[in-house]
Design brief:
The protein is an alpha/beta fold and about 900 residues long. α37 runs antiparallel to α38 (about 840-855).
């Protein structure tokens, strides 16, 4: 019996035939005993060397199972049970390591005939070294510790051989060779080419086990040569090149458990597990970890190949190349490797009948994977890919998302070796967020942190916060996040379908602006395609895991993918960038004006919004309130972000936005969204947009824009109960509009100033202003504001105690109203009047009439909630508590659907007697 340890672990019988011992864990058990030939080895020691010092109680039972498997194959009596452990009953010379060590000892023994004999002894055993030692073992403590020791032994042999060669070649009676002086050996002894070749082979094998992150770019011939070096001609062995496990693996417990459960069901039929996710999310790391954990379930070993579908430096492997890699791993010598036309068939015949676990890493598409999959029971395949593999491939699918903030923080701190004083919890959480919670990005930044132990977390945050420069920070040695993320884009660019080519054109456009979500319409506007074409291209980006699609017609980019797109956009010509921003801004403004079309509005607002929609023909169409308002809710942060981006002074010139500069985007958005802000009571968003408009207006000396912003801010503060502040801003805005001759705009602000004054108790002033403004309205023919002003004038009389005058004004106002919106509001104020004078039957009657008018056309949710609240008060006054409660609950449901940050204001203001308009 001859046990080989200096390469692929295997056993030869007396005739030189290989015994069927190939399962990684079985080979590891054999190696643990063979490294101590003829000596008893304690069970606890073997368990620790195979499963680590914290092995479970079941490990000893598993070891007994492996020993039983070895006994069925090895000669009878080869493994003996001894007290507390086992003994492999062989001599050291029955292992290649034993013979190698003995030759080294003899080469250093003076009793030999001389340096020639010592050199000959070494030359005889050097061929025993057939590859990286202990190949084919799983990732375990035994392999890690013993491989390091054996590599040192190999280098010692090379050094001794070099010394002996010099001694043999030295002339008789010559001076002592300088080789004996270590400090001069490098300069005195030229390197032996054969030695360097051997060292390079070792490094090549070691690189193979370092996995896909190591940039080697091997071709099929090199893989075949590697297999010939590492394996016996006729004996298949476990895979070469499986990436090393990650010591800082965190989380993924649910995903790992799911994969283990699926892979244990391979006995009846082959199992295929497809893992997809964006670049850097940790697909390969998870697959390698699970494969190592389950390798002992597949007695014919684990076969690995990097299909290079995510390699930024090398083209993906062709199917034939992948088959050659796997054939080499199964033991086929390079000289017997089939030609390209035959290789797939040979591979499938070799794979048939083997109970193996295939790890097909970084697949590009289904066509690359399908010919490699096992077809018989007992075998399984783990496939990782950025794309969602479809087509003929069926199997269990697992999509990997980014880590949670807690998991990401744990990972980066573990790799960085970070002390607690480097940053607080919020800083660590922000660091994880800026890295997109992607394992690859976290590993890069943590590696940089480890090399800079005196830097604080805040120092790294400062560099990462700039989205356009973030990609430059996420590089370390041979790890380049940007290159990794761009692989899929490059692959789409190389494709022939039109949607793939358009997808590559779209990608930098998605990085031109700061918006976070896109639709086929907005993207079509940016790139000049149809919405259908843009949708197909966005779907291709989604299939390639470059984009996400949380809902139909909505597409987003992961933060770090956005950074990559932004980096690419920043390198485009300035004219290209401005054109993309202008197209997107025009699309948004057009959409914002159109979202008001389904609403029931006074004439002045309807005219403004119609003119805006005509001026900005691009944009989305809306057919109902239920479609328009939720869209605006969802897009609001993007609108604000784009307004911030376009507020820079560099956008103050030009006429790209409907004939005005791009920095007018904030003004146009504020004008288009005024009704929305009042409907949703989205005061926070309104304030941000109007203050931005105010800043731009004062920088450009644009008094119209300044008046618009002051007017909306004044109305907003009045609605929030700060009437004094609101009145001041409204007066200022009215003054500016009048100085510009904008009478209609000035009257609109005045109609808002009247209830603002009333809300702070200045009823006489409010009444006088309302009467004065009504006179002007009649003179100027501005009927649009009459109903609103008259309602508020009647309110002033009501709360000043002049009930008869108030009632007369309100009845006349209702009779003169012609459209449902005006009638609804007039009936509502009549309801309020009868509630104030405690005539609850009349209040209920007018409430019913107001709600009937509201049903004639779509109304915003605020008006509906206000009407139901008034009706509830009337019903309660009539003693119908249960019905009142129902109305209140319906109003509350509407309220809670509005801006959650400002619900409390709505709950109070909806019944405020002084506030309307």
């Amino acid at each position: 019996m001859d046990i080989r340890l200096l390469g692929v672990v295997r056993v030869l019988d007396d005739d030189g035939a290989a015994l069927p011992i190939t399962a990684p864990l079985t080979c590891a058990t054999l190696a643990a005993l063979a490294l101590r030939p003829g000596e008893p080895v304690r069970t606890s020691e073997v368990v620790a060397r195979l499963w680590g010092p914290r092995a479970s109680a079941a490990a000893a039972s598993r070891l007994r199972g492996q020993v039983a498997r070895l006994r069925r194959v090895l000669p009878e009596g080869a493994i003996r049970t001894v007290p507390g452990g086992y003994l492999l009953d062989i001599t050291p010379e029955q292992t290649d390591l034993g013979r190698f060590t003995r030759a080294l000892e003899q080469a250093g023994t003076p009793a030999l005939a001389g340096p020639e004999a010592a050199l000959a002894a070494l030359e005889r055993v050097l061929p025993l070294w057939t590859g990286n030692p202990l190949m084919g073992l799983p990732d375990c403590p035994l392999r890690s510790t013993e491989r390091l020791r054996l590599r040192r032994l190999w280098l010692a042999v090379l050094e001794r051989r070099s010394e002996l060669r010099l001694a043999v070649e030295r002339p008789a009676g010559g001076e002592r060779s300088p080789v004996s002086c270590p400090e001069s050996r490098a300069s005195a002894v030229p390197p032996d080419p054969s030695e360097w070749t051997a060292i390079e082979e070792l490094e090549r094998l070691e690189d193979a086990e370092a996995g896909p992150d190591h940039d080697r770019g091997w071709g099929s011939g090199e893989f075949a040569e590697l297999a010939e070096l590492a394996s016996a001609p006729d004996e298949p062995g476990p895979a070469v090149g499986l990436p090393a496990g990650i010591g800082t693996f965190v989380a993924r417990a649910v995903e790992s458990g799911r994969l283990r459960r699926w892979l244990t069901d391979a006995s009846a039929a082959p199992t295929v597990c497809l893992i997809d996710g964006s670049g850097g999310v940790g697909k390969s790391t998870l697959a390698v970890r699970v494969a190592r954990e389950l390798v002992d379930r597949f007695p014919d070993g684990l076969l690995y190949v990097d299909l290079r579908g995510a390699d930024p430096r090398n083209a993906p492997l062709a199917v034939g190349q992948a088959c050659q890699v796997l054939l080499a791993a199964m033991g086929r010598p390079g000289k017997e490797m089939p030609q390209d036309s035959e290789v797939v068939g040979v591979y499938q015949r070799e794979l048939a009948g083997r109970r193996v676990l295939l790890l097909l890493d970084n697949a590009m598409d289904s066509a690359q994977v399908a010919p490699l999959l096992p077809t018989e029971a007992g075998a399984a395949a783990l496939v990782t890919s950025r794309s969602l593999l479809a087509g003929a491939i069926a199997g269990h699918r697992l999509h990997l998302e980014a880590l949670s903030t807690g998991e990401a923080t744990t990972m980066v701190r573990a790799i960085a070796g970070a002390a607690d004083d480097r940053g607080d919890a919020d800083e660590w959480a922000e660091l994880a967020r800026l890295c997109g919670r992607l394992p690859l990005a976290l590993r890069i930044i943590a590696t940089r942190m480890a090399a800079r132990p005196h830097w604080r977390v805040a120092d790294f945050l400062e560099r990462l916060r700039d989205e356009r420069r973030r990609m430059d920070e996420l590089m370390a040695d041979d790890l380049d996040l940007r290159a990794s993320l761009m692989v899929s884009i490059d692959q789409l660019a190389a494709g022939s379908p039109a949607d793939e080519r358009l997808a590559t054109e779209i990608f930098p456009a998605l990085g031109a602006s700061v918006v976070r979500s896109y639709s086929p319409g907005s993207v079509a506007a940016m790139v000049g395609s149809t919405a259908r074409e843009a949708g197909a291209a966005l779907d291709r980006l989604t299939d390639a895991r470059i984009a996400d699609s949380p809902r139909p017609e909505v597409y987003t980019l992961h933060d770090l993918v956005r950074s990559a797109a932004g980096w690419q956009a920043a390198r485009m010509p300035e004219e290209w960038l401005v054109a993309r921003l202008a197209a997107l801004a025009n699309w948004y403004v057009g959409s914002l004006y159109r979202l008001n079309q389904p609403l029931a509005l006074p004439k002045n607002y309807r005219v403004r919004y119609r003119e805006g929609a005509d001026r900005f023909p691009a944009g989305r169409l809306f057919t109902s309130v239920d479609e328009a308002l939720p869209w605006a809710d969802e897009m609001m942060e993007d609108v604000l972000a784009l307004a911030e981006q376009l507020s820079a002074p560099e956008f103050d010139g030009g006429d790209e936005l409907g004939g005005v500069p791009l920095s007018d985007f904030a003004l146009q958005s504020a004008r288009a969204l005024e009704t929305y802000f009042g409907t949703r009571l989205a005061w926070g968003a309104q304030r941000r947009l109007c203050e931005l408009t105010l800043t731009i207006a004062r920088r450009r000396d644009d008094r119209f824009a300044e008046a618009v912003a002051l007017g909306q801010l004044g109305k907003m503060w009045g609605q929030q109960g700060e009437g004094l502040r609101g009145a001041e801003l409204l007066r200022w805005g009215i003054k500016l509009f009048r100085s510009l001759g904008e009478t209609s705009e000035a009257l609109a602000l005045t109609a808002n100033l009247v209830p603002c004054l009333g809300s702070i108790g200045r009823l006489e002033e409010a009444k006088a202003l309302a009467e004065e403004t009504l006179t002007e309205i009649l003179h100027e023919g501005q009927e649009a504001f009459r109903i609103q002003l008259t309602n508020n004038l009647a309110r002033c009389h009501l709360y000043l105690g002049d009930h008869a005058t108030a009632l007369g004004i309100l009845l006349d106002n209702y009779a003169s109203a012609h459209v449902p919106y005006e009638r609804t509001m007039a009936a509502g104020v009549l309801t309020e009047y009868y509630l104030e004078v405690a005539e609850y039957e009349e209040a209920e009657r007018w409430s019913d009439r107001g709600m009937a008018h509201a049903a004639e056309q779509p109304f915003d949710p605020f008006v509906a909630a206000q009407q139901r609240t008034w009706r509830a008060e009337a019903l309660r006054g009539l003693g119908r508590e249960e019905s009142a409660h129902v109305e209140e609950m319906q109003a509350k449901a509407v309220i809670e659907d509005l801006n959650s940050r400002e619900n409390s204001h709505l709950r109070v203001r909806i019944t405020d007697r002084y506030l309307t308009g």
